[in-house]
Amino acid sequence: MEPLQRTPLFPHYAAFPAVRCIDFGGWELPVQFTGIQQEHDAVRRQAGLFDVSHMGEFLVTGMYAEAFLQQMTTNDIANLAAGQAQYTLMCYPNGGVVDDLLVYKYSDDQFMLVVNASNIDKDWAWLQDHIIGDVVMENRSRVTALLALQGPLASAILSRVTDADTGSLASFHFIHPAVVCGVPALVSRTGYTGEDGFEIYAPADQAGIVWKGLLAAGHGDGLIPAGLGARDTLRFEARLPLYGQELSPDISPLEAGLGYFVKLLKGDFIGRGALLEQQKLGLTRKLVGLELIDRGIPRPHYPVYADGSLIGEVTTGTQSPSLKRNLGLAMIKMDYTALDTEVLVEIRGKMLRARIVKTPFYKNTPASGKGVTAP
After folding, report:
1. Which one of 65, 74, 229, 358 has the fewest beta carbons within 10 angstroms of its own beta carbon?
2. How far apart are CA 217 and CA 233, in angstroms?
3. Using an 8 Å Cβ cutoff, are 72 and 93 in contact?
4. Which of the following CATH numbers is that of domain 284-357: 3.90.960.10, 1.20.1250.20, 3.40.50.150, 2.40.30.110?
């Protein structure tokens, strides 16, 4: 077996005696530092600090960089000005999803892509296979650390450790170069929690300085480190997709409810033909929210039934830490997607009643939120 990979911040986890790490796609990452409920609540009420340095970062440069990314992604890169970021997706020719990602525009001929950790090698190969013109790519994943400072007090905390005007930074905009805790960084107003917040990209060998500096600056405000458990419950409540659950090679962006990020009129891109056809013919299934009526918690891959037939499956489910309701996201047949439609979820051999409910389950008015308030 290959040894688990560790982020540059792994040595700092030991400062928290209750930390619990798991194998997450080949990475040894903290599922919690103190407890998922406490960390979830901190992000909703004060602030939490996430180590997401396992994510991948690719630099894409060249005169044809924009044209290349227009061909590879579903959103419209031409809408970006320097200093802006964009949520987008890469699709296969059949409309299924290679990955969902962020694109940062440094200049007309220089961009940064931020991809999911489990897809770094796959995404790199996919992009390399389709490269055009003078485009050059550089994989910066190993030398880049990524910290996410999220929550209603994130802006106030960050302002104490940087001279950059992060407080007036608009959603999906970034400052580069910036200095955070004395370390050169890129600071963007983006995140994956449904709350206001920032993502801070810094050199891997200086990540510990930023981590400790932010925790010290926010200590009096209740800032605590947060792990994968809270990251998942937070993004779930805000209906933000997780690749491998709400998105996959077998699930299109339209089925996942991400049509806003698919600009079919921008011109050709990989997967456009299939997505146009899907739009023309109409969806046969889509992602919906559901709430258990009977006592039980839906989990990924639990079957969903109606009228005696299998109509889909749960993609994500849990007891919502904010709402204390047993909720799930499910990919089901269109005939059963109307609000308040009753369905059955099979949980350990029992058929439990559930109803289709509105999503997102939780909605703040954040300055950021990957996939929620992205421009």
Report:
1. 358
2. 25
3. no
4. 2.40.30.110
Q: Which residues contact 348 (CB under 8 A, 6 or more apart)?
A: none
Structure tokens at 314: 């749960």
Q: Cβ(195)–Cβ(152) under 8 Å? A: yes
Let me know: does 352 contact 296? Beta carbons within 8 Å.
yes
Round to whole Å and give the CA distance between 150 and 168.
Answer: 16
- 195 vs 102: CA distance, rounded Å: 17
- Domain 1-282+366-375 CATH class label: alpha beta
Q: Which of 248, 283, 258 shows the shortest CA–CA distance to 74?
A: 258
d(CA 40, CA 233): 7
Q: Could you list the pLDDT tens digit for every one of the 375 residues in the chain? A: 789 999 999 999 999 999 999 999 999 999 999 999 999 999 999 999 999 999 999 999 999 999 999 999 999 999 999 999 999 999 999 999 999 999 999 999 999 999 999 999 999 999 999 999 999 999 999 999 999 999 999 999 999 999 999 999 999 999 999 999 999 999 999 999 999 999 999 999 999 999 999 999 999 999 999 999 999 999 999 999 999 999 999 999 999 999 999 999 999 999 999 999 999 999 999 999 999 999 999 999 999 999 999 999 999 999 999 999 999 999 999 999 999 999 999 999 999 999 999 999 999 854 433 333 332
DSSP letters for 102-123: EEEEEETTEEEEEE-GGGHHHH
Overall pTM > 0.85: yes
Distances in Å between the Cα of 225 and the Cα atoms of 98, 126, 190, 236 are 30, 34, 18, 19
Phi, psi of 208 (to 5 degrees): -60, -35
Question: Matching CATH topology for 1-282+366-375 and 284-357?
Answer: no
Domain ranges of the chain: 1-282+366-375, 284-357
Query: Residue 76 burial (CB < 10 Å; 0-12/13-18/19+)?
Result: middle
324 burial (CB, 10 Å; 0-12 / 13-18 / 19+) is exposed
3-state SS assignment for residue 13: helix
